[in-house]
Fold this sequence. Notes:
Strand content: 5-15%
CATH class of the largest domain: Alpha Beta
Number of domains: 3
Order of helices and strands: EEHEHEHHEEEHEHHHHHHHHHHEEHHHHH
Distance between the termini: 30 Å
CATH architecture of the largest domain: 4-Layer Sandwich
CATH topology of the largest domain: L-amino peptidase D-ALA esterase/amidase
CATH superfamily of the largest domain: L-amino peptidase D-ALA esterase/amidase
Helix content: 40-55%
Radius of gyration: 24 Å
Number of strands: 10
Structural class: alpha+beta
Amino acid sequence: xxxxxxxxxxxxxxxIKPQRRDLxxxxxxxxxxxxxxxxxxxxxxxxxxxxxxxxxxxxxxxVVVNSGNANALTGPGGIDDVGVIRGAVADALGIQKxxxxxxxxGVIGQRLPAMKILAALPALAEQLGDHSDLxxxxxxxxxxxxxxxxxxxxxGGKPAxxxxxxxxxxxxxxxxxxxxxxxxxxAAITPRALQDALVRAVATTFxxxxxxxxxxxxxxxxxxxNGLAGNPRMGEPGVDLDVFxxxxxxxxxxxxxxMAADGEGATRMIEVVVTGAPDDACARDxxxxxATSPLVKAAIFGADPNWGRILATVGARAGSxxxxxxxxxxxxxxxxxxxxxxxxxxxxxxxxxGAEAIVVHSQFAPVLAEAVLLSEDxxxxxxxxxxxxxxxxxxxxDLRAGRFARGASTLTQQLAKNLWLGTEKSxxxxxxxxxxxxxxxxxxxxxxILAIYLNVVELDDGVFGMEAGARHRFGTSAxxxxxxxxxxxxxxxxxxxxxxxxxxxxxxxxxxxxxxxxLRDTGRLPPAEHLRASAELERxxxxxxxxxxxxxxxxxxxxxxxxxEAHGAT
Length: 570
């Protein structure tokens, strides 16, 4: 995970749990604006009671999180324990007690063993550094894997990073969902603007997750923004704030889906998308009704395409709540959508005909999307369909070269080209591509564009989508791809039909190695995992390349040289 400037992370075992890490610390080396969203449970835990009135605020420096004990329903003693721990963290870091926030998760109703936390703080403070993976592990309870991710955006011409670590597996209900989440960013933003953006982002992500229908006592989402990116400080509505909020919403959406997929006992994950409802409140209500329906869950678990249960649930909820929704006007479409069907459905959507786009949301290995974005559109979450900086750079390069040599297409433009425009090289095609890309961004948003792209991109002659590509190239699912396999798939995107993994070409080898190094250098792949992935990558790429296959595809040569800055071929 890429870490924003000025933040350090740590995670140790303090003994609350018999095994595994159980104490995490997130520290900003510079005073940060802070915001928070909390559970609405009336039996709120002590850290929630302590933190809720103290945000939004300026000058926050640290968030300490323990797992294994919720410090909930522990009376005045629980509040006292929070104060003692905050004070000890402040002393260990040399900061003020009021600049420390706290959160807990674990067993409800037992007194927090505060002395164990105090004893572990010196070692935790000493460990602080580029250890977001340790912090993410330390906040886990029944989670089977750590959850963390990051987004990069451009604000006022300055690059900024938004990252988060999160936990969530059980007690997941549509009301924030049982989660602890710490968002960190080096963007400059006022506490009020950060709070408003966080509330809106949580409303459509964590607040919409459901696994078992139970609400926690400890749900907490904190956000810290220290401003070290150097962008003009955001406080009023504007383009930068829109970009920031879109990236934040997408980031929390990824975490929400990761929680649902990691739900206790879960074997399936579905995403319910409601469009065309009278208003947002109605759409959220219907989506929750479908997601929490035992009959719908049973059908999904049994892999039974019983769409009647979905429409029956919609009809029941609409009738009980008086929503002006008519299930008889619904259109039932196949779930296993192919390439051409997605194109046709999107055509309807962009023409504003009222038809809904049906998109397959496959389970992908997390590193796969990161590798694809670094390969095809490193600034994907920082533009609105067109990357004007890349276009300017490409134009200057082409003028010097005297020919069209460098592409500047974003991933969104590539999707528009692949679905509708073909490979014709002309300014007219590029103009149409730009218009369609802008429409896609407005109609779908980043997350769905990326999902569609991963489901329809070509991986070989007649092989479309990462799921099919993973099985075709490696005999495994897209969710089970290793980092090395993900890098190879992402690297062959410029010319997938030319690649024979039995005889890898020089350009594929160089591109794959460079992309794997970029994953490490940008913090998306820890050094230890990079070493293992490098060894596996060399095994995949083993074998001499024939002499006539050593040259790069002419149209892709410049793009391969640019590595993570590439934005696709024109």
